[in-house]
Amino acid sequence: MKLQLLKPNYARVFDTNSVGKIEGMQAELKLKSDYKPVFKKARQVPFSIKPQIEQELENLEKNGILIKVKQSKWATPIVAIPKASNKIRLCGDYKVTVNPNLVIDSHPIPTVEELFTDMSGGEKFTKIDLSQAYLQLELRNYLQICQGEKSLRKSTYPKHIYN
Fold first, then answer.
1. Which domains occur in the chain, in start order?
2. Which residues cross the membrane (predicted)?
């Protein structure tokens, strides 16, 4: 198979143990001029998934997605989302901290109909499944999440920010 021939030359692309990173591009969150930092304490999580949360936090830290900090003016509680694979996905609940303080981008997102109209007449289509795609875009300014005694800085674009 041709794909097997590509794997040795592009091992980093096919590595399932680490998160990829978009090179040469960073996202920036624009805060309102009158923003006030919001610090929310960590929420209680079910005891049964605490080990999974700790493991996921360690993985995210190991991959440079989260960076330990001593203190911060901002902190967002995490939400653990169960995945079909019996693992969990950690998300920040930014609706209670960052989202109300953001300047909303004035460019409208195209509708599904507009996207399909733009693709009409196309002959070749493809799709790509990026592992943890929302973690691959670095942030120029950082966000904080908190869980228990830990305070961690998020270095990649969060999934539930709506800027």
1. 31-106+135-163 (3.10.10.10)
2. none
Which residues, 6+ apart, have CB-to-CB distance to 123 below 8 Å? none
Decide: 154 and 139 in contact? Cβ < 8 Å.
Answer: yes
Angstrom CA distances, 24 to 30, 58, 135, 136, 145, stand at 19, 26, 15, 12, 25
Task: Locate all alpha helices (DSSP H) within 38-133, ordered by sequence.
Answer: 50-62, 112-119
Angstrom CA distances, 34 to 21, 31, 101, 103, 142, stand at: 32, 8, 8, 11, 18
Task: For residue 149, give the amino acid letter.
Answer: E
Q: pLDDT category, 50, cuts 50, 70, 90?
A: very high
On whether the CB atoms of residues 133 and 17 are closer than 8 A, the answer is no
Q: Which residues of 26-45 are buried (b: 16+ CB within 10 A; e: fewer)?
A: eeebeeeeeeeebebebeeb
Per mean pLDDT, which range of 34-48, 86-100, 122-136, 149-163 is the poorest?
149-163
CA angle 118, 122, 128 (to 5 degrees): 85
Determine contact, residues 109/81, Cβ cutoff 8 Å: no
